[in-house]
Amino acid sequence: MLINGFLSSPLSITSLINMYSKCNFISDAFLVFSSSSTSELNVFAYNAIIAGFIHNDMPKPALQVYGKMRVVGVTMDKFTFPCLVKAFSGCDDVVGLKIVHGLVFKCGVDHDLFVGSAVVHGYLKFGLMADAHRVFDEMPDRDVVLWNAMINGYKQIGEHHNALEFLQRLRAEGHIPSRFTVTGILSVLTMKGDLHNGKSIHGFVTKMNYSSGIAVCNALIDMYGKCKSFPDALAIFEGMKIKDVYSWNSILGVHQQSGDHEGTLNFFNRMLRDAVFCPDLVTITTVLPACSHLAALRHGKEIHAYIITKGLGKEDDTFIKNAIMDMYGKCGSMEEAQLVFNHMSIKDSASWNIMINGDRVHHDEDLIYGELGSLYATMGLCKVA
């Protein structure tokens, strides 16, 4: 293109910027953009480079290009605004987002579904539900993706009744809930502990043949587990033809919640035997309490070794260290618990409580007073007399 002089047209420049951006060569895309003359850069070229920066998770450079676009007087179109909303959202700039919203009205594209959806998502990111709701209601056309965004927005701020109300409105306006709608609503019902409506959603899932989706099945397992309908959760899991690590974590959590600690370890061993998915931190923190309750020291040591070998958890991950320490303490291995405690870079009150309770259970009064003395010294209080 350079040799044959094909880079003198805005179309060629835009195409080249798009190619480099989508292939994650954003520096080359920007080189093409910055080496072009102002006359060769139209709104499409500006949109392409701004979208390229957003695609490569670089919102600040996107806003810098937007600033240049305003200076040179290039008029924005409906494809510019969604990228600008993402850029201001990525920079946590709510003022900038509201300015863009004002420009949307000024340019007369406020009723465009693509633009309106972007503005709604932008407000939802900042938790500004009233603004998102107002934009949503003003849009003449709404797709199911936008409905899902509002449902999940209300779910995230704990307004479950509004999330369920939006589901009713969605169906009343003739839209069919998608798989994403179902997972969002199941999450709401899980938080509410609403088994009755959860079963109704399960019936809808079966009717729409959504049960082939892993995410939907995982949400059903979680809902049934949290609502203490353990046989239903197990039936969903066993009926899944394809599972992922979240499926395993969900069913492990169900067994642990039901107090079936042996079942938790059995499923963990089954997960390891299948050797399809490696346990993650969620898996580990679910299984360790089962080891604690059963005083299964061998299993606990194997899990601890697995954490070290796989490099799971950060050096300052207090939560996972506390879980390991608690397991050793309840399995009667206070020496190992003490070693973990000694090597913790950050200790919280739970860390100290675990050691104190472990020492108390094993009647080591000298250690108890030693830990209490250290605790009070750390807190700046008087030592125990």
Verbal overview:
By secondary structure, the protein is mainly alpha-helical. It has a domain at 143-242: Serine Threonine Protein Phosphatase 5, Tetratricopeptide repeat (Alpha Horseshoe), CATH 1.25.40. 72% of the residues lie in helices and 0% in strands. It has 22 helices and no strands. The chain has helices spanning 10-22, 26-34, 43-55, 59-72, 80-90, 94-106, 113-125, 129-138, 144-156, 160-172, 179-192, 195-207, 214-226, 230-239, 245-257, 261-274, 281-294, 297-310, 318-330, 334-342, 349-361, 365-379. The radius of gyration is 28 Å and the shape is globular. The termini are far apart.
Order of helices and strands: HHHHHHHHHHHHHHHHHHHHHH
What structural class should be given to the helix and strand makeup?
A: mainly alpha
Q: How can the largest sheet be summarized?
A: none
> How much helix, percentage-wise, in residues?
over 70%
Radius of gyration: 28 Å
CATH T-level fold name of the domain at 143-242:
Serine Threonine Protein Phosphatase 5, Tetratricopeptide repeat
Mean pLDDT: 88
Number of helices: 22
Poorly predicted runs: 381-385
Globular, elongated, flat, extended or rod-shaped: what is the shape? globular
- End-to-end CA span: 84 Å
How many DSSP-defined strands?
A: 0
Bin the strand percentage: under 5%
Name of the CATH class of the domain at 143-242: Mainly Alpha
CATH-scheme architecture of the domain at 143-242? Alpha Horseshoe
